[in-house]
């Protein structure tokens, strides 16, 4: 059925507008050019205030500037570029994360400016390559905004940023890595920010195809018929109530040289989660359910970076895309679905749909013989309740794989926390009439969801990220912009980049 019969929703708005803005930005290292409209200058809480600031520490303090991370002082100057004084904290505490945040602060302070410079006189022991990457990445991520549907938007994209930092030599590599990471996150943000009527599972497949051509990975689309042939009863069951077709989107990246290993990535792609027959109550919170494809978006975002990041592993991705809707054709409580591989699943709650669509993909990843699986899903409200929006729970059946995810998360400053995969709770998923039920007890909901997934993972080394809490932020928070955060895209890219199985 044509969901856009009156063409009020133009199909071509289902794109990734933030990506074009990102690719148009230029980042260089060197002397700040004369056409810069704003210049940021980094100031530590200790040591000298750079002369370029033009004020001494006492004057800065008088103006309320503390030089702590996050502090900023805007000084407009007649006939000269704006001065934006940026706090860097104590020199001993300087890290890549502090620099990434500082670049974000500059982007906010110079939000009306297209051409910006940033001067830091002393990197306090942080390597110039590390600093370059962090500063560039922070700036690119912080300048993102989803504006295509807002005709009143006055957002100004970044055209040029020049980093004037000491000791620079060949910084092409760190700048490329910054762009590649930012691209992964921006693609994920754009997709998650797009309204559900503008981005159906079918649209998602089309976007994946065009991104695959552009960024060097193969895309295979599985429509309803193909999914029936594969026996993907989890995805098909959830899709039953929707007038939109489902799509399983299979992504494959093949490295140019010898492959260092084979990593499988699985993403939950619920384009809109109404809860289905177990309908969610009317609540502003459910505005967020257009982002219930944040896992699939993170996987697709990560794929856009694999080639340019120089990934040496083979990477396969499965995006499990459909809406979860109530209707006369919906799957019902008490229904039994048969997932790929034959496991029967009793549906005790149609709102526990994410684990159902993931089950088919985990089995398919196993069949492909991947060395490890990392899955990512906006899976449970319990993840949000337990760790809030700043940290994502990570679970797994293999400590090494969990550690790969944890280390990658630390590198990109997206926080995760390992929770135990407490198998004592596994009997909560036992069913009287099927192999397994999709609902556990009232407590430890993120854990019982992970235990459900583990059933389909088998013995393959596996880690699971529940991003229900971290997928969005209400307000701008350093380089995380309000709305979808793209959480996980950069983690997955970092995990994949040098992936090799345990020897
Ligand atoms: N998509 C939701 C989880 C979610 C909640 C994501 C809040 C982001 C913010 C998921 O499909 C869901 O509805 N989970 C249920 C599971 C329950 C029925 C076992 C939940 O967490 O309430
Ligand atoms: Mn749900
Ligand atoms: Zn959901």
Automatic annotation (TrEMBL):
Obligatory cofactor(s): Mn(2+)
Catalytic activity: Release of an N-terminal amino acid, preferentially leucine, but not glutamic or aspartic acids; Release of an N-terminal amino acid, Xaa-|-Yaa-, in which Xaa is preferably Leu, but may be other amino acids including Pro although not Arg or Lys, and Yaa may be Pro. Amino acid amides and methyl esters are also readily hydrolyzed, but rates on arylamides are exceedingly low
GO cellular component, one term: cytoplasm
UniProt binding sites for Mn(2+) 2: 268, 273, 292, 353
Key words, A-Z: Aminopeptidase, Cytoplasm, Hydrolase, Manganese, Metal-binding, Protease
Annotated EC: 3.4.11.1, 3.4.11.10
GO molecular function ontology, one term from the record: manganese ion binding
Compartments it resides in: Cytoplasm
Protein's UniProt keywords contain Cytoplasm: yes
Residues that bind Mn(2+) 1: 273, 351, 353
Gene3D superfamilies named in the record: Leucine Aminopeptidase, subunit E, domain 1 (3.40.220.10), Zn peptidases (3.40.630.10)
InterPro entries: Leucine_aapep/pepB (IPR011356), Macro_dom-like (IPR043472), Peptidase_M17_C (IPR000819), Peptidase_M17_leu_NH2_pept (IPR023042), Peptidase_M17_N (IPR008283)
Gene Ontology biological process terms from the UniProt entry: proteolysis
Cofactor note: Binds 2 manganese ions per subunit.
Bilayer-crossing regions: none
Chief location bin: cytoplasm
Boundaries of every Cytosol aminopeptidase domain copy: 349-356
Active site feature: 280, 355
Record's function text: Presumably involved in the processing and regular turnover of intracellular proteins. Catalyzes the removal of unsubstituted N-terminal amino acids from various peptides.
Family listed: Belongs to the peptidase M17 family.
PANTHER family in UniProt: CYTOSOL AMINOPEPTIDASE, LEUCINE AMINOPEPTIDASE-RELATED
Name of the protein: Probable cytosol aminopeptidase
Organism: Microbacterium saperdae
Lineage: Bacteria, Bacillati, Actinomycetota, Actinomycetes, Micrococcales
